[in-house]
What we know:
single chain; alpha+beta
Amino acid sequence: MSDLIQLGGVNERPKAPRPEDLRLKFSETAVAELDALLGHYPDKKSCILPGLWIAQREYGGYLSGNAIAEVAHRLERSYAEVEGVATFYSMYNTAHEVGTHMIEVCTCLSCQVCGVYPLAEYLKKKLGVDFGETTPDGMFTLHEVECLNACDRAPLIQVGDQYHGPVDEAYLDNLLETLKSQPSSVVQMADEIVQVHLANFEKPGAEKTPAKTAKPRTSRIKVDTPN
């Protein structure tokens, strides 16, 4: 997720490409999905959020300036408007490129009481990175996050759309080894969110006509009027 804004610190924002440098990278599937989603909303502006999820998937888990510019171009919005939305929500990765897997460590009260900070330090030492950094091989990004709302499983971490907890050092060792052989959980999560927005008949490979629905019944009401 995007880094939290730190008062007094430098917060990088995606830089917009010049119009002549914009490169459209959406696949045919992505374009078809965006076209389908436009039919869900009254105007193109309302499609910015799902459009950004498509972009996060298509651009490998990171919303670069070009990714944001492509969403703006396809939805006919300004770059500033789309960039403002993307940087407002922490689930869009705009602060920096992320690894194949993003490990999010909850450090709120319940996890803190249950010993998450020693585990966080263990992860930092094992991966050789601090919070907000990515391993040199591009495999793991480590983030500190606010409450994940599963306090009964503290200490808790999140990878993609999966919660893991309660964890200990042995569990983390096994998890890291397992993740090394799996495809990007960052991209997978973005795709799953896109698919949730789509009706079954709108998804790639599905029949393009919606299921038939029963026609509403109509009845005539006789109204007696005085002569």
